Amino acid sequence: MIIDTHAHYDDKAFDGDREEVLADLAAHGVRRVINSGSDLGGCRRTLELMEQYPFVYGSLGIHPCDTAELGEGDMDWLAARSRLEKCVAVGEIGLDYYWVEQEHQREMQKKWFARQLRLAQEVGLPVVIHSRDAARDTIDLMRAEHADRSGGVIHCYSYSRELARDFLDMGFYFGIGGVVTFKNGRKLKETVEYLPLDRILLETDSPYLSPVPNRGHRNDSRNLPYVVAQIAQIKGITEEETERITTENALRLYPRLRV
Q1: Fewer Cβ atoms within 10 A, N terminus or C terminus of the chain?
Q2: Is the backbone of residue 133 left (phi > 0), alpha (psi -120 to 50) or beta?
Q3: CA 39 to the chain's CA centroid
Q4: Which candidate, 80, 76, 74, places its Cα nearest to that of 40?
Q5: How many whole angstroms separate alpha carbon 91 and alpha carbon 5?
Q6: Is the model's pTM score more than 0.85?
Q7: Radius of gyration of the chain (CA)
Q8: pLDDT tens-digit profile of 93-149?
Q9: Residue 4 near residue 32, CB atoms below 8 Å
Q10: How far apart are CA 204 and CA 139, in angstroms?
């Protein structure tokens, strides 16, 4: 059994065939999907998917690039929905400096990252963290807000194996997806080799980051066997063992998941 711990089936890229794709996942061994909200609209659509599909769970949070218009009322709304039975995490939240040039924009991201880290502790859920070109600020804020109390996953991990130790020390998991199959994904392959098996989760970030041999096309959870195969090769274990361990990891981090 495979669990896709991070996807965006609410994305408009699936508007033409969402139902068909989701209906086909079980035939490819994918039995659970966590759909991740990234803005308020995405969170609302995630709630609809959670209600419509028994195997779809949700994480609700606001991506750093969508925090500019947030207010405390939005945090109240997120807190209430995060208490729903099928909501397993707060996220994706974090810092993304790739598109940001001005310091006030970074400060805005940090403000709402810290606020959502506190929200996760208030509702008793782990966090799903997005961090791009912002490693040091991410780590510093996580420590300042005691993110180790809630735990969670570093989604689409993109930093070095050396920095991975900081996140491991806080008890975090690592979301590994299609990038691990890329020819230029050497840094991630080295990190996967370094990481303990019990800290690895499978994810797609659908519709983004399709693995080889489907790189450049729309991604979905049916591509996860390619990620499984690559991780198994790196770790020197079978694909069956990789599926079993990553599933156990997901169930440990997200106790609201039911199988």
Answers
A1: C
A2: left
A3: 14
A4: 74
A5: 12
A6: yes
A7: 17
A8: 999 999 887 999 999 999 999 999 999 999 999 999 999 999 999 999 999 999 999
A9: yes
A10: 24
